[in-house]
Amino acid sequence: MRRTERFPVEGANSLWHVYKTVPFWKVVKNFIIIQLARYTPVLGMKNWLYRTFLGMNVGQQTSFALMVMLDVMFPEKISVGRNTVIGYNTTILAHEYLIKEYRLGEVRIGSEVMIGANSTILPGVVIGDGAIVSAGTLVHKDVPAGSFVGGNPMRVIYTPEQLAQRWADDPIYGGKGQSGGHV
Question: A single Pfam family, by name (predicted)?
């Protein structure tokens, strides 16, 4: 289950209440900064913009590829560890506006994480250190540290323990494996 805080609304759908939940000028400023960062190829500048103007916690040597789209309304709820790669055209959301309510949730992405291109990360999830998220994945729940996940809906493809066992059984990686080797 994602960790989101729920805020019910009455009358029109929750998006019609958006400027009661976040100031208009904050959204305008965030939009300009995010659009500037989406198109700049200078990784250090992107991280500086995110830290300085959006209030994000971004670790050293973290790389946001071109066209990454951060939450325009609540980017300060996103944190990314050190030496992580966020792939091309990935979307990271910290809010969701629904019909009868809106939800807010922090997104915490660990260190040494690889997020594949065109992935979407929903609010309220934690992606553990060393995790790998396959391209095109909808991350709708937590990703355990060191795991490889993918798909829509997202599923665990293997855990660190399963990977260690594969390597132990594979003669290419020094394991015993089966006789005959690989083709």
Answer: Hexapep
